[in-house]
Amino acid sequence: MLANAISLLSFLSISAGLDGRFRACDNSQHRAPTPPSVGQDEHTVRECSSCHSVVYCSQRCQKEDWESLHQAECRGMRNEHHVLRYTKGLRYSQTYRAFHLSVLRRAFDGESPVLKLAKVVIPDPWSRKGVYLGRKVVLSIDVADIDDPLSVDPLPDFIKMTLPHIPKHLAKRFKDLVGLFTAFETSETDKAPVLVNGTFFYGDLEVNHLVLLRKSQAMATTHQRQDLPPKVEICGSLVYTW
Fold this sequence. Notes:
This protein is of the alpha+beta class. The protein has 6 helices and 11 strands. It has one domain. The strands form 4 sheets. It has a 5-stranded mixed beta sheet, with helices on both faces. A hairpin with a 7-residue loop joins β2 and β3. The N terminus is likely disordered.
């Protein structure tokens, strides 16, 4: 594990120089993006003007997410944003979020030690052979932990220890993201999704990204680089702070 930790920190230090521009969309029902209108910047995202905490790739996605999740959570997100900005003087912007997402995505590219760890075949005690149990574990990356930045937790344990720290207004979004993770059906290990929790610090604020990742597919994703097709897709993410 120590060797993996050293390799990971070295890898992330290189990734820190990457351009983090993503077209992000917080609509969990996001599908193939609508082509931009004439004269519209294809990199433009629609940020919620009330809470400044979620972004969308189109008016359609914004409407869908408002009806399914954001209408119930927007006030809570707005209050949290105001407390951080006007009490602590901190504003965790979408630019910082995009950069942290790019770092996490890069951690799963190519020969990353995190990717290798995620694809380890775990013996299944309820069968006679080793099977991939990836949908039952969560990988955590704490970039502030120099000694041991990687940890692996069974999904039920992760939910039990994390849910109390999720604000009530984000509980539904958290459960939906976990549900999307467990709902993926594939018999091919390299196409199986990975759920990762990345921890960063912004000032004295601990910012956690719960991100659903998988090897690139033909289908559209909710977070995509616009210059090159990513090797790893970010299918959904949630930001929460401690």
